[in-house]
Each structure stands twice: as C-alpha cells, then as structure tokens.
Amino acid sequence: MNLDPARCEWRKATASNNNAQCVEVTRRPGLTGVRDTKDRGGGFLVFSQPAWQALLRRL
After folding, report:
1. How far apart are the C-alpha atoms of 52 and 58, rounded to whole Å?
2. 21, 41, 55, 59: least buried by Cβ within 10 Å?
C-alpha cells in the first residue's frame, strides 16, 4: 500500500491536549495512515479500509 506522508493532510483528535501525547491520522481512498505526533518522521502505519474498521471495532 502506497501513501506519501509528505503529501497527506494529517489530523489529530480535537479532544487531544497540547502535550503531543496522541496519534495523527490521514485518509486516502481505500487507505488510512497513522503516525505518532511526537515522532512525525519516525514512520507510520498504513491500513486498508477493512483493516482500519476492524481495528476500530476492536478498540
């Protein structure tokens, strides 16, 4: 799955506080990317939409 993080609009939850203790997500058709707000250059995970939905159901 290909997702270029430099070309994505990353968002974090509006309920998160300002101490950077959260994750950010980005969406592309069929994909969701997740990265650590504290380490934006440290890599990210990419989920297919079915995998992302399954993860959210499990959480």
Report:
1. 10
2. 59
pLDDT tens per residue across span 47-58: 999 999 999 999
**pTM score, whole prediction:** 0.79
d(CA 21, CA 11): 13
d(CA 26, CA 45): 10
Q: What is the pLDDT of residues 24-51, one digit of tens each?
A: 999 989 999 999 888 888 889 999 999 9
* Displacement of CA 37 from its chain's centroid (Å): 9
